């Protein structure tokens, strides 16, 4: 099947980035599937299996092998947005999805809904550069889904929150404004919250594997790779494996978006360098004292702030170590040159 570049989300940003590769006979392609070091590309010549390092949603410059449905990725074009997390046990970034316009942060209306986890996902989403949208699935199984909606809205300031049922279809029409032709939406959330079931409902067919509910009402982890699919209306949808944990890889400034209430209070403090402890005129302390700012909300903010500060320190230490190694390698090469 052949694709037009515009239908895949191509725009002037990518056209300008691809221009240097065109004289070499390379072709643009978008990574549709990423699994075990291999990728599948959507291109104007059809679907191609390719070797090379890229992530789902990336635009690449590829060399098509003559007479074959295969290609080699020669370059990854600069990303407009990227949703990333920290590699477990390593101080390295793992990009989960690239060039995403909107991130559907998927959880459910029941026991899986955890406000503190949603705050973590919101922080990563704001840092990605994409627009976050909270999608609460399995509303048909919840006693009062609107109570969960209110709880989500209380921490997701200015972010659309939708309660939906992939079984009855209730609430799905509210997602349509985010699914315009050529736009790319990623489904992100923990295992078993119903991402693939939601994707199949939006596709209008059982294209992606899903799992049955367990006895506790939770879904089973089914998606094993990242896959970009086209919806009937022309939008592109990226389903991703469920995340058992999301370790943040973000700038501390992203917290100001997730915790807009805390950021606004901090701006009202008497001193610009207020540590929000026992300082006089501390608006944060006053809000905690009168209950305007819930203690659990403040503790969540402080926890994520400490996590991101620790990450920044480790990144800085790693860069200094790499720079030191490079200086030593250069010094050794200079000594060999003299001899």
Description:
- Residues 211-223 have low confidence and may be disordered.
- With 339 residues, this protein is α/β, with parallel strands linked by helices.
- The strands form two sheets. Strands 1-2-3-5-4 form a five-stranded mixed beta barrel. A two-stranded antiparallel sheet has the order 6-7.
- The protein contains eight helices and 13 strands.
- The chain has helices at 12-18, 115-128, 145-153, 195-203, 255-258, 260-267, 283-290, 295-338, and strands at 27-35, 38-43, 46-51, 59-64, 70-76, 82-86, 93-98, 102-108, 131-137, 161-163, 184-188, 226-230, 236-239.
- 30% of the residues lie in helices and 22% in strands.
- The radius of gyration is 23 Å and the shape is flat.
Distance between the termini: 62 Å
Question: Which H/E pattern describes the elements?
Answer: HEEEEEEEEHEHEEHEEHHHH
Please report which band the strand proportion falls in: under 5%, 5-15%, 15-25%, 25-35%, 35-45% or over 45%.
15-25%
Average pLDDT: 88
- Characterize the main sheet: 5 strands, mixed, barrel
The DSSP helix count reads 8
Helix content: 25-40%
**Total beta strand runs:** 13
Shape: flat
Helix/strand-derived class?
A: alpha/beta
From the alpha carbons, calculate the radius of gyration and give it in angstroms: 23 Å
């Amino acid at each position: 099947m052949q694709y037009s570049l515009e239908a895949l989300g191509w725009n002037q940003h990518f056209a300008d980035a691809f221009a240097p590769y065109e004289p070499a006979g390379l072709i643009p392609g978008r990574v549709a599937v990423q699994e075990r070091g291999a990728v599948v590309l959507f291109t104007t010549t059809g679907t191609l299996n390719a070797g090379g390092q890229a992530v789902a949603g990336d635009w690449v410059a590829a060399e098509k092998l003559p007479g074959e449905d295969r290609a080699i990725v020669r370059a990854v074009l600069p990303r407009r947005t990227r949703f990333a997390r920290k590699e477990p046990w390593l101080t390295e970034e793992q990009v989960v999805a690239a060039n995403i316009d909107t991130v559907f942060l998927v959880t459910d209306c029941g026991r899986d809904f955890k406000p503190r986890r949603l705050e973590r996902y919101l922080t990563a989403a704001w840092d990605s550069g994409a627009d976050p949208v909270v999608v609460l699935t399995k509303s048909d199984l919840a006693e009062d889904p609107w109570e969960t909606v209110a709880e989500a809205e209380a921490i997701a300031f200015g972010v659309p929150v939708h309660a939906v049922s992939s079984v009855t279809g209730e609430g799905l029409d509210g997602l349509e404004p985010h699914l315009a032709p050529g736009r790319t939406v990623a489904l992100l959330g923990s295992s078993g919250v119903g991402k693939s079931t939601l994707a199949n409902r939006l596709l209008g067919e059982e294209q992606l594997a899903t799992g049955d509910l367990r006895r506790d009402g939770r879904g089973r982890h089914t998606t094993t790779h990242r896959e970009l699919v086209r919806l009937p209306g022309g939008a592109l949808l990226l389903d991703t494996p469920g995340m058992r944990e999301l370790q943040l890889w973000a700038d501390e400034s992203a917290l100001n978006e997730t915790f807009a209430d805390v950021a606004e209070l901090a701006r009202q403090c008497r001193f610009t360098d207020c540590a929000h402890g026992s300082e006089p005129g501390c608006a944060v302390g006053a809000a905690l004292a009168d209950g305007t700012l819930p203690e659990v909300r403040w503790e969540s903010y402080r926890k994520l702030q400490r996590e991101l500060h620790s990450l920044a320190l480790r990144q800085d230490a790693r860069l200094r170590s790499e720079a030191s190694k490079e200086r030593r390698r250069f010094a050794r090469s200079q000594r060999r040159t003299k001899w």
